[in-house]
Automatic annotation (TrEMBL):
Residues 392-575, 635-668 form the Protein zer-1 homolog-like C-terminal domain. GO terms for cellular component: Cul2-RING ubiquitin ligase complex. The keyword 4Fe-4S does not apply. The gene is zyg11. It holds the Pfam family LRR_Zer-1. The lineage of its organism: Eukaryota, Metazoa, Chordata, Craniata, Vertebrata. The keyword Nuclease does not apply. Residues 208-299 form the Zer-1-like leucine-rich repeats region domain. PROSITE patterns: LRR. This is Zyg-11 family member, cell cycle regulator.
Length: 700
C-alpha cells in the first residue's frame, strides 16, 4: 500500500489570487460520479478506514504509524480531510499526525471532528500551518483552546493565513479566554460565523495587520465601527444575519461606505427582517466602487431597476444575491451570462443558490422549495442538480424542512426512467442520505413517504450500493407504525427485494426481531380476511420466505404466531395462488432446526391441504412459468433430510423430493462440485423415486 501511494503523482494546490476567493460562500467541486473513483481517493479511503492496521497504539490510546513513511505534503492534507469528512478523526486517530517530519500538514481541515483540546494541541499545533478549518468541531474544543494551542508554536502563529471557526463556542464557562486573535499576525482570512462573538472581540480582530477577509455572520456584534481599522486592507466582508446589530441604516452604511477596497459584501438575511439597508445601499451612487460581488438575499424593498442601475455603475461585478427578494425576474438578471445571480426566477438562479448557500439552512430550504416545482416536469436525467440537492442534505441532516424539501426533489429527479441515467455512486450517496433522514425523523409521516417513494426504484434496490440491512430495518419500523395501504404495498415490496439481497446472517438477524414477523403475518391476515389477492400479499409472502431462509429463530416466530394456520387458511381460500404459498413455505419447512419445532399436527394438516399428488400436479403445470423468478435454489440438501423421514405424512416427503429435484435442476453443477451431488446418496431415494416418476411431471 505504501509503495502504491508513493507511485502517485499528486497535483499541486495553487494559492488563490486573493483571500476573498477562499472565504466566499463555498462552491463545491464534484468529482465525476460516472467515472471510477481516482486512485488517490481509493487509497486514502482504504488507509483512513483501516488505519489501525498500519499503526501501533501508544499507552494514551493514540495511534502512530508502524513505519516511518514520508507522505507528500498534499497527501497528508488530504488524508486528514478524508478522516474528518468520514467521521474517523478522533483523539486516537489524529495521533498519526504528531510526527511532523513524515506527515507534514499545511492546510488542515478538521471540520465536524470530535477531538479534545489536548489532542488538537499535540497533533496539529506543531505543524507550520497555512490554513486551519475547524468549523463545527465538537463542543469540547473551543476557540480559546485553538488559540491557546496555536500560541505554543511561534512559527504557526506567523504562518497561519486562513482560520475558519464557524459554529464553535468562544470559551468554556470555567476558563476565560487568555489568548487573542491579534497574536496571529499573519492571518489574512477569518470566519467567525455562528459564534457567540461580541463587540469586545471585534476590536481585537480589527487590529490584525494583514486581515483581508472577515465573516461575522450570525454573531452577537452590535456595533461595526471597529471595522474602520481595516479600511485600508479589508476586501471581503460577510454580515449575514447580524441578529443583534444596534446600528441604524445610516450608521451602518456610514461605516461600510468607508471601506473603499471592499470587493465582496454580503448583507443578506434569511430571517426576512424589514430593514431597508439593501434599498438604501443600492440607491447610493458612488458607494463601494471596487465592489464585484453583492449579496442582499432575503432583504425587502429590492427591485430589478435598482439592482440593474447599481450593476451598470460597476461593470466589473460578477455576482448578485437576490434569493427571497422581489428582484431577479428581468432578463438582465437572469444569471445566464457573466453576471451570476442567486434567486428563484429560473433554474440557473436556483442552482446558483444551492451552490453558494449550501451551509445556510434557510436559503437551502428556500432554494429547494423552488427547485421542487421545476423538477416536476424534468424529462431527462439531471445528475448536476441531484448533486446540489445532496450537498444540502449533507450539510443539514438535522433540519426537518431541508430534508423534507430535499427528499421530495430526490423523488422527482430519480423517478421511473430518470434513475437509469444517474451515476451509481451518486445514487448510492443520495440513498444513504435518505436512510439517514428516515432515521433522524421517524415520526414525520410525509418525510418517510418521500423517502420510501424514492427507495421504491428497481435501479436503486438492485444495482446501487448502500446499507441494505439498515434500509430493511428502517422500512420495517415504518411499516409497523402506519396503516396507509398505498405506502404499505410499497414498503413490503422494498422489504421483499432487500431481504433477498442480504447475507444469511443479516437475514437471520432481521427476521429474529419478533415485531417484524408479527407485522408481516398481520398483513397476510388482513388480506386473508378481506379475500384479497394483490401485490401487497405477494410481496409480503416473498418477504416472509426470504426472512425464514436458514433462520431457525424466524421460523420459530412464524410458527408460534400461528403462521402455519394462517397460510393454510390462505391456501384454502385462494387456490389460485397456491404456487406463491408453496414456494414461500418451502424455505420455512425445509429449515432443519425449525422443523423440529413444528408439531406433527401442523405437518399433517399441511399435507392434507396440499392433497399430495393432485396439488403437486397443479404446481408442476405452472412452475415452468414462475419458478425462475420466484423459486430460489436452496444452499444445501441438509434441510430436506428430516422431511424425507416423515413416513406418516407422504405429502411432506413428496414436497421434499420435488424440492431436491428443483435444487438439482437449478444448481446441480455447484452441488456436484461440493460433493453433495446426487439424490442416490440419500436414504429415502428409492421411496421418493417411486413417488415422482409414475407421474408425468415437468418441474424445472
Amino acid at each position: 500500500m505504501c509503495i502504491f501511494l508513493h507511485g502517485i503523482r499528486f497535483p499541486t494546490t495553487e494559492a488563490p489570487t486573493s483571500y476573498y476567493h477562499m472565504t466566499k460562500h463555498p462552491v463545491c467541486c464534484f468529482q465525476d460520479d460516472s467515472s471510477p473513483a481516482s486512485l488517490t481517493d481509493l487509497c486514502l479511503t482504504y488507509v483512513s478506514q483501516n488505519l489501525e492496521w498500519f499503526c501501533l497504539k501508544h499507552p494514551d490510546g493514540s495511534l502512530c504509524l508502524r513505519e516511518a513513511i514520508l507522505f507528500p505534503q498534499e497527501l497528508a492534507d488530504q488524508l486528514l480531510a478524508k478522516m474528518a469528512i468520514e467521521g474517523l478523526l478522533n483523539d486516537s486517530t489524529v495521533g498519526v499526525f504528531r510526527n511532523c517530519e513524515y506527515l507534514r500538514l499545511r492546510r488542515a481541515c478538521i471540520r465536524t471532528a470530535r477531538i479534545s483540546a489536548e489532542a488538537f494541541q499535540r497533533a496539529l499545533c506543531p505543524h507550520r500551518l497555512l490554513e486551519l478549518d475547524a468549523s463545527r468541531v465538537n463542543a469540547d474544543l473551543t476557540i480559546a483552546d485553538i488559540l491557546q494551542g496555536l500560541a505554543t508554536n511561534k512559527h504557526c502563529q506567523e504562518s497561519l493565513q486562513r482560520l475558519a471557526l464557524t459554529g464553535l463556542t468562544m470559551t468554556s464557562l470555567e476558563e476565560p479566554i487568555r489568548h487573542r486573535f491579534s497574536s496571529l499576525q499573519g492571518l489574512r482570512s477569518l470566519s467567525l460565523a455562528n459564534v457567540d462573538f461580541y463587540d469586545s472581540g471585534l476590536a481585537d480582530v480589527c487590529s490584525l495587520p494583514r486581515l483581508e477577509s472577515l465573516d461575522l455572520s450570525n454573531t452577537s456584534v452590535t456595533n461595526l465601527t471597529p471595522l474602520l481599522g481595516l479600511r485600508e486592507r479589508l476586501r471581503s466582508l460577510t454580515l449575514h444575519q447580524l441578529k443583534r446589530l444596534e446600528m441604524s441604516t445610516a450608521q451602518l452604511l456610514g461605516v461600510i461606505g468607508q471601506l473603499d477596497l471592499l470587493q465582496h459584501l454580503d448583507i443578506s438575511d434569511d430571517k426576512q427582517f424589514t430593514s431597508d439597508v439593501a434599498r438604501q445601499l443600492l440607491g447610493q451612487p458612488g458607494i463601494l466602487p471596487a465592489l464585484v460581488s453583492l449579496d442582499v438575499s432575503g432583504r425587502k424593498q429590492v427591485t430589478d431597476a435598482a439592482v440593474k442601475a447599481f450593476v451598470e455603475e460597476r461593470p466589473g461585478m460578477t455576482f448578485v444575491g437576490l434569493l427571497a427578494t422581489d428582484a431577479g425576474f428581468s432578463d438582465f438578471l437572469s444569471g445566464e451570462g457573466n453576471l451570476k445571480v442567486t434567486g428563484e426566477a429560473n433554474e440557473t438562479q436556483i442552482c446558483e443558490a444551492l451552490r453558494r448557500y449550501s451551509e445556510r439552512e434557510g436559503f437551502v430550504r428556500e432554494a429547494l422549495f423552488h427547485l421542487f416545482s421545476l423538477t416536476h416536469v424534468m424529462e431527462k436525467p439531471r445528475p448536476d442538480i441531484l448533486k446540489l440537492v445532496v450537498l444540502g442534505m449533507k450539510n443539514h441532516p438535522a433540519t426537518l424542512n431541508v430534508q423534507l424539501a430535499a427528499s421530495a426533489c430526490v423523488f422527482n429527479l430519480t423517478k421511473q426512467d430518470l434513475a437509469a441515467g444517474m451515476p451509481v455512486r451518486l445514487l448510492g450517496t443520495v440513498t444513504q442520505l435518505l436512510l439517514e433522514a428516515m432515521r433522524t425523523f421517524p415520526n414525520h409521516q410525509q418525510l418517510q413517504k418521500n423517502c420510501l417513494l424514492s427507495l421504491c426504484s428497481d435501479r436503486i434496490l438492485q444495482e446501487v450500493p448502500f446499507n441494505r440491512f439498515e434500509a430493511a430495518k428502517l422500512v420495517m419500523q415504518w411499516l409497523c407504525n402506519h396503516e396507509d395501504q398505498n405506502m404499505q404495498r410499497m414498503a413490503v415490496a422494498i422489504i421483499s427485494i432487500l431481504a433477498a439481497k442480504l447475507s444469511t446472517e443479516q437475514t437471520a438477524q432481521l427476521g429474529a426481531e419478533l415485531f417484524i414477523v408479527k407485522q408481516l403475518l398481520h398483513i397476510v391476515r388482513q388480506k386473508a380476511n378481506q379475500g384479497v389477492v394483490d401485490a401487497t400479499l405477494k410481496f409480503t409472502l416473498s418477504a416472509l420466505w426470504n426472512l425464514t431462509d436458514e433462520s431457525p429463530t424466524t421460523c420459530r416466530h412464524f410458527i408460534e404466531n400461528q403462521g402455519l394456520d394462517l397460510f393454510i387458511k390462505v391456501l384454502e381460500v385462494h387456490t389460485n395462488i397456491e404456487l406463491f404459498i408453496y414456494t414461500d413455505l418451502e424455505k420455512l419447512f425445509f429449515n432443519n432446526e425449525a422443523i423440529t419445532t413444528i408439531e406433527q399436527a401442523h405437518l399433517l394438516h399441511f399435507s392434507e391441504a396440499i392433497d399430495t399428488r393432485r396439488h403437486l400436479q397443479n404446481i408442476a403445470e405452472t412452475c415452468n412459468i414462475y419458478c425462475n423468478s420466484i423459486v430460489s435454489p436452496s444452499r444445501s440438501f441438509n434441510p430436506f433430510f428430516p422431511l424425507l423421514e416423515c413416513f406418516h405424512t407422504p405429502g411432506v416427503q413428496l414436497w421434499a423430493a420435488w424440492a431436491m429435484q428443483h435444487v438439482c435442476s437449478k444448481n446441480g453443477k455447484g452441488l456436484t462440485h461440493k460433493g453433495k451431488c446426487t439424490t442416490r446418496s440419500f436414504p429415502m431415494y428409492q421411496f421418493t423415486h417411486s413417488l415422482i416418476h409414475p407421474q408425468p411431471l415437468q418441474i424445472r
